Amino acid sequence: MYIPTPFRIEDVGKLSAFIQRHSFATLITHDGTAPFASHLPVLFRPEGGSHGTLISHMARANPQWRHFAAGGEVLVVFHGPHGYISPAWYETAPAVPTWNYATVHAYGVASIFEEHERVVALLRETVATYESAFAEPWPGELPEEFRDKLIAGIVAFEIPISRIEGKFKLGQNRPAADLEGVFKALAQSTDAGSRALAQFMREECRLEAKE
């Protein structure tokens, strides 16, 4: 990934927090002929390896898991908030439109695990993770026969992260007045994605909208 210096994120804690917060990711592999992508919820375990370990599952009918057998590196892309940036929001002129965004790329070699209890534990952890925000979370309890029939239709895997890179392109290379103008415009937008980007800028660039 091309990352100009102002946008490069190397703080391990910040990268870890990002992939946990934005855990619906894109898994990219290559089948020897063409790239292949799947979109999956991915859990992060910081204790696994020097950069942590990613763990997930996919449908057995999805051919992507067969790509793991080649032993090549795979790429997992975590997507954060993003949005169009109008030059009308800058104090500095002339200027052109751009797109601000945040993303983290994690690389590693994927391996499948089939131990029944490990797969059950993964599914329980996945449910608990995404149900935890609800006032009345679903407990995830299923009849064993029904659960095991579903398990037969999935493939669980893990990816120890060998390298990780983050890019938060938020206009850090522009004057403070331009950053403030962008933040104010995004924060006042009726678009939820734009407001999410404004909140991310608030956290990363320590910005506050001015009256």
Care to describe what's here?
By secondary structure, the protein is α+β, with helices and mostly antiparallel strands. It has a single domain, classed as Electron Transport, Fmn-binding Protein, Chain A (Pnp Oxidase, Chain A), CATH 2.30.110. 28% of the residues lie in helices and 33% in strands. The chain is built from five helices and nine strands. The protein has helices at residues 12-21, 116-131, 144-151, 176-187, 192-205, and strands at 8-9, 24-30, 35-41, 43-45, 53-59, 73-85, 98-109, 111-113, 154-169. Strands 1, 2, 3, 4, 5, 6, 7, 8 and 9 form a nine-stranded antiparallel beta sheet that branches. Strand 4 (43-45) and strand 5 form a beta hairpin. The protein is elongated, with a radius of gyration of 20 Å. The relative contact order is 0.19.
